[in-house]
Specification:
694 residues; alpha/beta; mini-chromosome maintenance (MCM) complex, chain A, domain 1; OB fold (Dihydrolipoamide Acetyltransferase, E2P); Rossmann fold; 5 domains; five-stranded mixed beta barrel; five-stranded parallel sheet; 24 helices; elongated; disordered N terminus; binds adenosine-5'-diphosphate; binds magnesium ion
Length: 694
């Protein structure tokens, strides 16, 4: 009986839809009729309905969308077309709901059930497209009568008795005459930028049918308009009084927003252009990154450039060169790496912070899973890098990453895609994000005498994809310690003042960014939208000279090839980003000079072989040890051996003896031991003895 009721049409509604469609959508309907049945949907903007009909008609569409859309569909079906085509299975799909009916997932309430709403989100998960029966044909096994039963809800509906012979006969489903549509299930997640400080993103499941199945992929930003439905939950105690909701999609609109979502008013633009004329703007911008963190000017500069980004390039032969700048911070624990990461994420438009062990099965990349979400179908789930498309992915504790993620990162960092081939699902998802990684050294503390590749616990192939690698060491140094300590004390003090009085005294200025974060975000968005700098001749020559200069160091006797073309690309990207930071259309010599300085700073600390004092990218990229740099390592090994042989601290003389027997002069060995001590790798428990710090 239920079925009969829901099938009944309100003729007056059908008529009004017909009037409306003929008046406002005639051209589109004609177009559809020529493309039908390859195209099956007539997209109707809600604002047109609002303008073209009485107010109450439009609000009925919001409040009783089932009835209204069935009427609309029937109206479309009945329209006489000059083409003679009948739009039997066409849909009327509503798009562009006004902003007030556009909800965040967390704002969905019970009064929305049964209504037409729009929901914004990012596609987290998506099943394969599979047929779903919409009209199931049942054949009565007693009298042979065939009855069609509409399948609209979540469960499968079977006839109770035969409508012809009225017996509760067994029925046989006849798939060959049943009617199917394509169906897909999708899981939406709240966009990360809508989340405030560590909130867990909420999700909403969406059903897609027919021609809107298979149009979106995980990682896409979408606005789904649909009818909110509910279903009863089951618990251990049987049926539960709690209901869950899902959305029956009417339309899916894709969004390409990234920095576009940051609104810039005329007033903002004035402020931005004022900043542009400030001769110290670049320094000010750097100082506005994480002012509560002491020091790290170079790291902050790198994060700033990362936010501005270089220019991605599509070459005529189809290759794409990324504009995103990848930065890695490697260093001792407790030196504010995680803090810097979370600050960067707050400034970025689509920043996502991820520990290496992600909360989802998809981890950093993406995965195909078969779980209850897909009802036995495979589903593709997006991980952090896909969700951070066009933003920044901050990956903390990269050293603890899964092997699977690590492998996929190679592709993600250079091609900026993530490919999945599993269980018959093949997909390529976009992951155009800049990566800001942090890693702790493998043995707890960073040891500059060990090749970085061995300590960072990341494969050299991955390390070489970072544009900038910072090695940060926490070495006791009286002056720096006092400065850092007093900075932290003052920061906390200012925070306390802020918490009690909310005032703005001298102390509070310390932790106040010079360019406040909202304006900084706008400034960056403005630059990324409007500024596409081109290299000047001078800058090009400087990059070339610097690069060739680096290479030349490798042409000498027995040195490995030091610098790869990746470093040249890094320079160009950084130069573009720096020009953007000045809102300049030209990468000028001053930009080149500045980024060369930054690159040099990193190279010196990571790539300089501490034994030879020479730049050597193989130090990072291959991790091989040339004989010279082996010495410090050998000394360490000798100490280790002797420690294990004896008990604890080892006499200095004994080490020098063994070192000599292995070909290291005593004086040289002594010097190395002093260096190791200074770097906190070994210590001296009593005079004339040393041990390894653990
Ligand atoms: P990491 O991730 O490197 O192990 P964290 O980011 O967790 O370190 O930092 C540990 C704590 O020490 C944080 O509360 C941080 O604010 C503080 N800290 C460390 N170095 C600094 C610094 N240079 N300036 C301000 N705070 C610092
Ligand atoms: Mg940390």
């Amino acid at each position: 009986m239920e079925l009969a009721f829901s099938d009944r049409l309100d003729e007056s509604l059908v008529e009004r839809w017909q009037e409306f469609l003929k008046k406002y959508y005639w051209e589109r309907i004609l177009e559809l009729s020529t493309a039908y049945p390859e195209e099956k949907s007539l997209y109707v903007s809600f604002s047109d309905v609002n303008r073209g009909t009485e107010l109450e008609f439009a609000s009925l569409l919001l409040e009783a969308p089932d009835v209204m859309l069935r009427s609309a569909r029937e109206a479309l079906r009945r329209i006489d077309l000059p083409t003679g085509v009948s739009l039997e299975d066409a849909h009327v799909r509503i798009v562009e709901l006004p902003k007030i009916h556009r909800l965040q997932i967390r704002d969905i309430r019970s009064h929305h059930i049964g209504r037409l709403i729009s929901v914004e989100g990012i596609v987290l998960k998506m099943t394969e497209v599979r047929p779903k029966v919409v009209a199931a044909a049942f054949k009565c096994q007693k009298c042979g009568h065939v009855a069609f039963v509409r399948q609209e809800g979540r469960g499968f509906v079977e006839p109770a008795e035969c409508e012809h012979c009225e017996r509760k006969a067994p029925f046989r489903l006849a798939p060959e005459i049943s009617k199917f549509v394509d169906a897909q299930k999708m899981r939406l997640q709240e966009p990360p930028e809508e989340l405030r400080g560590g909130e867990m993103p909420q999700i909403l499941d969406v059903n897609l049918e027919d021609d809107i199945a298979g149009v979106a992929t995980p990682g896409d930003r979408v606005v789904v308009t649909g009818i909110l439905r509910s279903y009863q939950r089951h618990s251990h105690y049987g049926k539960s009084p709690f209901f869950d909701v899902y959305l029956d999609a009417i339309s899916v609109e894709r969004e390409e927003k990234e920095f576009e979502e940051i609104e810039i008013t005329g007033d903002d633009e004035k402020k931005i252009l004022e900043l542009k004329n400030d001769p110290h703007i670049y320094e000010k911008l750097i100082r506005s990154i994480a002012p509560s963190i002491y020091g790290y000017e170079e790291v902050k500069e790198a994060i700033l450039l990362q936010l501005f980004s270089g220019i991605p390039k599509e070459l005529p032969d189809g290759t794409r060169i990324r504009g995103d700048i990848h930065v890695l911070l490697v260093g001792d624990p407790g030196i504010a790496k995680s803090q810097l990461l979370s600050y960067a994420v707050k400034l970025a438009p689509r920043g996502i912070y991820a520990g290496a062990k992600g909360a989802t099965a998809a981890g950093l990349t993406a995965t195909a899973v078969k779980d209850e979400f897909g009802d036995g179908r495979w589903a593709l789930e997006a991980g952090v890098l896909v969700l951070a498309d066009k933003g920044i992915a901050a990956i903390d504790e990269m050293d603890k990453m899964d092997k699977k993620d690590r492998d996929a990162l190679h592709e993600a960092m250079e091609q900026q895609t993530i490919s999945i081939a599993k269980a018959g699902i093949t997909a390529t998802l976009k992951a155009r994000c800049a990566i800001l990684g942090a890693a702790n050294p493998k043995y707890g503390r960073y040891d500059k005498y060990e090749p970085p590749a061995e300590q960072i616990n990341l494969p050299p192939t991955l390390l070489s994809r970072f544009d900038l690698i910072f090695t940060l060491m926490d070495r006791p140094e009286e002056d720096a310690d006092v400065n850092l300590a007093s900075h932290i004390l003052r920061t906390h003090y200012a925070g306390e003042l802020l918490a009690t009085s909310g005032g703005d005294g001298e102390e509070i200025r310390l932790i106040k960014p010079e360019v406040p974060p909202p304006l900084l975000r706008k400034y960056i968005a403005y630059a990324r939208r409007n500024v596409f700098p081109v290299m000047s001749k001078g800058a090009m020559r400087m990059f070339l000279d610097f690069y060739v200069g680096l290479r030349r160091q490798g042409y000498g006797e027995d040195a490995p090839i030091p610098v790869t073309a990746r470093q040249l690309e890094a320079l160009i990207r950084l130069g573009e980003a720096r020009a953007r930071a000045r809102l300049s259309d030209v990468v000028a010599e001053e930009d080149a000079e500045r980024v060369i300085r930054l690159v040099n700073y990193c190279l010196r600390r990571v790539f300089v072989d501490p034994e030879t004092g020479k730049l050597d990218v193989d130090w990072v990229a291959v991790g091989t040890s040339k004989s010279r740099r082996d010495r410090a390592k050998m000394i360490k090994e000798i100490i280790k051996e002797l420690e294990e042989a004896g008990d604890g601290a080892v006499p200095l003389e004994e080490i020098l003896d063994v070192a000599e027997s292995r070909g290291i002069e005593r004086a040289k060995a002594e010097e190395i031991i002093e260096n190791l001590k200074r770097d906190g790798i070994i210590y001296s428990p009593k005079h004339g003895y040393v041990g390894i710090v653990r």
